[in-house]
Write a structure and sequence with these properties.
By secondary structure, the chain is of the alpha/beta class. It has eleven helices and ten strands. α2 packs across α11.
């Protein structure tokens, strides 16, 4: 390792979604407390894993393993250290709490009285996300397209903003989402049962570091990182705080 390698900033990469940004900030604070400069970057799911594979980042916050991101990590899994599990994410199809409890299962969306009320667009985020892959499979395997339902990828704001507007108007809507996420800090969202098991189960949001960067990061910093846990509830709150501070949401005005 050259002197220039020893002295350069630690390159922290996170998937380009706000809650990954929020968790990356927790990791970066520990690195800074150990005297490291930090260079941060964001990219969509597959691209961020490719950057780590190419050695363009040193730390990735975070890999959802095994279901959501396992296929992106698998080709170079032996090149990284799994340092800690930050939280335990899982994907859902959810509805606002005012949708009657009789709508409890994905298959209930096909009931004529439910289909007549429910918005047909299932608005997702970017195509590389696990929830996007899972949602496409749900549309197909439950035969939802025959009832007019369709899934579309988009931006965070396409997905979250549409849900906020639907809630403001008390519309029946399904959101393809996950825990943790800022919307859970703001609303009670009821997960629909999905008995076919297409949503991937519970993952472990794993902080990963390239083996060839461990010495430069140093044993004390790695030891402290290995003790870092955030948890789903705090992670949703951190995401909410970051989105509000950054003005990422155009939330509907509160009723007077």
């Amino acid at each position: 390792m050259t002197d220039s390698d020893t002295n350069r900033a630690i390159r922290v990469g996170h998937i380009d979604l706000s809650f990954h940004d929020a968790s990356a900030r927790e990791v970066e604070e520990i690195l800074k407390s150990h005297g490291h400069d930090v260079e941060r970057s964001a990219a969509p799911h597959e691209e961020m894993f490719q950057r780590m594979r190419r050695g363009e980042i040193d730390v990735l916050v975070s890999a959802w393993l095994p279901a959501s991101h396992g296929e992106y990590l698998r080709p170079f899994e032996q090149e990284v250290r799994k340092v800690t599990v930050l939280y335990e994410p899982y994907c859902i199809w959810g509805v606002p709490e005012y949708v009657p409890a009789a709508v409890s299962d994905v298959a209930d969306l096909l009931k004529p009285d439910v289909s007549a009320r429910m918005e047909k667009l299932i608005q997702g985020i970017n195509p590389g996300a696990g929830i996007s892959r899972f949602s496409k499979a749900i549309i197909e395997q439950y035969g939802l397209a025959a009832a007019g339902y369709h899934f579309e990828t988009g931006t965070e704001q396409d997905c979250f903003g549409r849900f906020e507007r639907a809630v403001a108007e008390s519309c029946w809507v399904v959101i393809p989402l996950w825990h943790p996420q800022a919307l859970h800090h703001r609303h009670n969202i009821r997960a629909l049962e999905e008995p076919k098991g297409l949503l991937g189960g519970t993952d472990k949001a794993t902080l990963i570091v390239r083996h060839d960067d461990e010495a430069r990061i140093g044993a004390p910093a790695l030891a402290e990182l290995s003790r870092l846990t955030i948890g789903n509830t705090r992670m949703s709150a951190l995401d909410d705080a970051l989105r509000r501070a950054a003005g990422l949401d155009s939330r509907p005005p509160a009723s007077s």
